[in-house]
Write a structure and sequence with these properties.
Elements lengths: L7 E7 L6 H12 L16 H6 L6 E8 L5 E8 L7 H8 L4 E7 L6 H12 L3 E7 L8 H10 L9 E2 L9 H10 L12 E10 L3 E10 L1 E3 L3 E4 L5 E3 L2 E6 L1 E5 L1 E3 L3 E8 L10 E4 L18 E7 L5 H14 L4 E7 L3 E8 L2 H14 L4 E3 L6 E5 L4 E4 L11 E16 L3 H10 L3 E7 L4 E9 H5 L2 H8 L5 E12 L1 E8 L2 E2 L5 E4 H18 L7 E7 L2 E8 L15 H21 L6 H8 L4
Parallel strand pairs: 1-3, 1-4, 4-5, 5-6
Antiparallel strand pairs: 2-3, 7-8, 7-16, 8-15, 9-14, 10-11, 10-16, 12-13, 12-15, 17-19, 17-20, 18-19, 21-22, 21-23, 23-25, 23-26, 24-25, 27-28, 27-29, 27-30, 30-31
Helix pairs in contact: 12-14
């Protein structure tokens, strides 16, 4: 379908988690009729199994929808569905870079939440036209007037223009198409100029090579053209261009304003970079597009293959995953206990879990992960400053003049009846209350200064449980502050296991050590000898658990007679066990490493 540039609209759907972005996308796709009823399934844009199982969107997905407006004209609407979770806000910022407008969804029963505000600011940074949509108006607990007040007060938008829809039942969904046509601007750009296209995503296809997702800002592109990536001057010949309509739909050409894909037989995954500019070799544009700011990882963990033969497969899998997830950062690492692996940086704990599951499912690699940590600033006695995120690099305590850890400014929005429980939770995690204010009659925004290391461990899960699911949480990095840091080691049968080491605050060390020792005791299988599991700071043991030994009844054949006969046999057994313990090697199962990660009670 050839559509004039004035009739193209590129827009995103942004919102807090569970406010109905993917469901609204489903209804819009059904209305556009690009998928037959037989092939349609809920959350059709969530293509990964892990997205369907968890009920969350992880990757932003693009789909081109044909639409005939009330004015009788044909339009092409490029919809980009985005994630809501704070760990994937980088995905959202990339999706917004290829749009002119955004629909911001507000749940009629939950109102404006932390991530709604954060995504609103992202949209404003990209100068997008933002249209509010009140979703879930069919719920018995829906309060539309209250939601309108929040849109006006918290988001500063005109609540009179807010659309009212129920994405679940389909009520009012066609008004979203009309609003896109009427309220959102068409893309700018000259189709006759030199090609300037921004890479906002890509993925790997085993049959076609790397498939590049682009937004064309200027010029045009067709099959047979020779393209060049401006960051590294790599050149390729275009094999196919087209739109995303759930499946790839080949087109004659892509022009200014279009969002689509390029297939050019790209075998070198490293040539394609998110945020790079694509141009024609023969007719180059003058300057690169500004691209995206680099994501800052906040949680670090090392990944090792369970079978050391899988190291090469892990390297290839990470390279392919990096193509599809630009916020993943990794470098080579090695451990005495686990061999060769990679030190990876993530945007949060959910991001870490998702990457681990994708590596295991999509690439069939079994992994062991070390305890997640954050970056600490260590000042040595000679005044040099080091940034470390790996416990194995922690220097001798006698050489350290001071340590600093990253803190965050957290904004927590909750119904006011949970204020005491949230205050208690934040104090337990070494938080400091900086401010609070009432947003509406019974909703309160609490601001805390919290150490990032405390938030990494199950803070979000605890917040959800103490607020019965009504708490929303958003944060930004607030710089480094002085801290009292210690390295917590774990010894199994007297052997130090470097993969279990953690950097923790001194006040938390004993609790963390006891907790981890209890978890390890449950997971490590019993042997014929006792196994001591110890938590230690330097040479000082601060926690201990013992895995009791199996005991063979050597006295079974001694019935009656002198007690010294039994004692002699038991002594003999004892000596054997002692000798066994000296040469006995304790195999630590993978579940034990994972149990330590989950040890925050």
């Amino acid at each position: 379908m050839a559509v004039k540039r004035e009739n193209i609209r590129n827009f995103s759907i942004i919102a807090h988690i569970d406010h109905g972005k993917s469901t609204l996308s489903d209804r819009l796709i059904q209305l556009a009729g690009i998928v037959s009823e037989r092939d349609f399934k809920d959350q059709i844009l969530d293509s990964m199994d892990i997205e369907r199982e968890r009920g969350i969107t992880i990757k932003s997905q693009t789909v081109s929808l044909p639409y005939t407006g009330k004015d009788g004209q044909d339009y092409l609407l490029n919809l980009i569905d985005t994630p809501g979770h704070v760990d994937f806000s980088y995905e959202v910022s990339r999706a917004l870079a290829s749009c002119e407008g955004a629909f911001i969804l507000v749940d009629a029963s939950q109102g404006v939440e932390a991530q709604t505000l954060a995504n609103m600011y992202l949209a404003m940074e990209h100068n997008l036209e933002v249209v509010p949509v009140i979703n879930k108006i069919d719920l018995p607990s829906a309060d539309i007037e209250w939601a309108k007040d929040q849109i006006r007060e918290d988001l500063g938008l005109d609540s009179g223009t807010a659309l009212q829809v129920s994405a679940k039942t389909g009520l009012g969904v066609e008004t979203v198409f009309e609003a896109a046509v009427k309220l959102m601007p068409p893309p700018a750009g000259d189709s006759a100029g030199p090609l300037q296209a921004l890479i906002f995503d890509s993925h790997y296809d085993p049959y076609r090579g790397t498939i590049v997702h682009v937004r064309v800002f200027q010029g045009s592109l067709k099959k047979g053209d020779r393209i060049m990536f401006m960051s590294n001057s790599a050149e390729y010949k275009v094999e196919e261009v087209g739109f995303f309509q759930i499946v790839r739909k080949p087109m004659d050409k892509l022009e200014a304003g279009h969002v689509g894909y390029i297939i050019a037989g790209i075998k070198m995954i490293s040539d394609v970079r998110c945020g790079d500019t694509v141009t024609l070799s023969s007719f180059q544009c003058k300057a690169r597009m500004p691209g995206f700011r680099e994501p800052n990882p906040v949680v670090f963990s090392s990944m090792y293959p369970v079978a050391s033969d899988d190291y090469v497969a892990l390297s290839e899998a990470l390279e392919k995953l990096k193509l599809n997830d630009a916020s993943l950062i990794y470098e080579k690492d090695a451990s005495a206990a686990l061999g060769f692996g990679y030190r990876c940086g993530f945007l949060g704990l959910l991001h870490l879990e998702v990457v681990q599951e994708r590596l295991e499912r999509e690439h069939d690699i079994s992994l062991i992960l070390t305890s997640p940590s954050v970056q600490y600033e260590i000042t040595r006695n000679d005044g040099t400053i080091e940034i470390i995120d790996n416990p194995s690099l922690y220097p001798d305590p006698t050489e350290i003049a001071g340590t600093r850890e990253p803190f965050i400014d957290a904004a927590i929005i909750i119904p006011d009846k949970y204020m005491g429980a949230v205050m208690q939770l934040c104090l337990e995690h070494r938080g400091l209350s900086t401010n609070y204010q009432y947003l509406t009659r019974n909703r309160i925004e609490m601001k805390f200064n919290l150490p990032l290391a405390e938030v990494v461990y199950e803070f979000y899960d605890r917040l959800k449980s103490v607020t019965q699911g009504y708490g929303s949480f958003d944060y930004e990095i607030a710089g480094y502050q002085q801290t009292d840091l210690v390295k917590l080691d774990f010894l199994v049968n007297g052997e130090r296991v470097d993969a279990l080491s953690q950097l923790v605050h001194r006040d938390k060390a004993v609790d963390r050590a006891r907790n981890a020792c209890e978890q390890l005791k449950e997971e490590i299988p019993r042997q014929m000898f006792k196994i001591a599991i110890q938590g230690a700071i330097g040479g000082k043991i601060i926690a201990r658990e013992t895995v009791s030994a199996y005991r063979k009844d050597v006295t079974a054949k001694c019935y009656g007679g002198d007690i010294s006969r039994k004692r002699k046999l038991l002594e003999k057994q004892k000596k054997g066990k002692k000798r066994m313990k000296m040469v006995g090697n304790v195999e630590i199962p993978q579940s034990a490493f994972l149990s330590v990660l989950k040890s925050g009670k």
